[in-house]
Write a structure and sequence with these properties.
This is Naphthalene 1,2-dioxygenase system ferredoxin subunit. It is built from no helices and eleven strands. The strands form three sheets. Strands 2-3-4-9 form a four-stranded antiparallel beta sheet, with no helix packed on it. Strands 5-6-7-8 form a four-stranded antiparallel beta sheet, with no helix packed on it. Helices cover 0% and strands 46% of the residues. The protein is mainly beta. It has one domain: Rieske Iron-sulfur Protein (3-layer Sandwich).
């Protein structure tokens, strides 16, 4: 069963930007891709637990602000060392101008 949680309005995050979203003790990173789609991952880098909401987005990659490892936020794949463990990704849907993350 899905558990949809409203993360933000579609107008609250610009293309090629990242936004931190916290919900019930969990933290996520929400992305607005250059393709116009929205994506979500766990909020913390798998390498050193820095929050990706403070990172830099370049196309479909998020760069960790601490050691500059990077991930493809569409798939969660680590793309630049020292990041080597995949990020968990979450399905995203748009409803009435809002971005929802399926955190189930």
């Amino acid at each position: 069963m899905s558990q949809l949680v409203r993360a933000c309005g579609t107008d609250e995050i610009e293309e090629e930007e990242v936004l931190r979203f916290d919900h019930e003790g969990n933290t996520f990173a929400l992305y607005h891709g250059p393709d116009g789609n929205f994506y979500a991952t766990d909020g913390y880098c798998t390498h050193a637990k820095a929050h990706l909401g403070d990172g830099i987005v370049d196309e479909f990659e998020i760069e960790c602000p601490l050691h500059f490892g990077a991930f493809d936020y569409r798939t969660g794949d680590a793309t630049v060392a020292p990041a080597c463990q995949k990020l968990k990704t979450y399905p995203v849907s748009i409803q009435e101008g809002a971005v929802f993350i399926d955190i189930s």
